[in-house]
Amino acid sequence: MSQAYVRPPQVNPFLTWLSRRILHALGWKVLGPLPPYPKLVVVGVPHTSNWDGVVMVLAAWSERVQPKWMGKHTLFKPPFGWLMRRIGGVSIDRRAKHNAVEQAVQAFAREQEMVLVIAPEATRKKMAGWRTGFYYIALGAGVPLALAAMDYDRKEVRINQVLHPSGDLEADIAQMREYFENTQGLRPENQGPIVLLPRP
Which of 5, 19, 78, 121 has the most C-beta neighbours closer than 10 Å? Predict the structure, then answer.
């Protein structure tokens, strides 16, 4: 993908302005810009608190991007299903014959532009390692991984590095481990090691 790509605004200018003001008031900086690709899987690390989602959304809005996130299909039923989609939800039906990775790959195929945010830990509780679904979504969809470090110690969201999945999971995870080194979550006691959990 050519570096000449310019992402069009996906949120209105007021929301972008407001997000930047809020982050500034809270002492946060976003070290971007978001890598110039129309489709990305954003790897948000570490995930230790519910506040991580708020920080990530504000950071994305400040970059004029409406992030997508995956949710169980039942969240998208009336009367609030339209709202879940409006704020970036992508419905995943766990009853379907296709698993969540395949459904996310299909969602990328349907969209011309899509920025999907995933926390590899999948929970704010301490985990023994990372789940690998985010990687296989990017690999299957043929899209890059944007590495987003949410550092509460420095109050920085660093989202200026991209990694193209090579298919060598261990080697790619080693690069991510180096990038996320010394990134401190809001609750450091909930941070686990950057190692791989077995695929279910």
Answer: 121
CA angle 138, 131, 134 (to 5 degrees): 15
Identify the domain containing residue 110 by its residue range.
27-182
Residue 145 makes CB contacts below 8 A (sequence gap 6+) with 40, 41, 42, 43, 134, 135, 138, 162, 163, 164, 165, 172, 176
The 10s digit of each residue's pLDDT in 92-117 is 776 665 688 998 999 999 999 999 99
Domain-located, residue 38: yes
For the chain, how many residues are written?
Answer: 200
Asked whether residue 4 is assigned to any structural domain, the reply reads: no
pTM of full prediction above 0.85:
yes
Rounded CA separation 104/116 (Å): 9
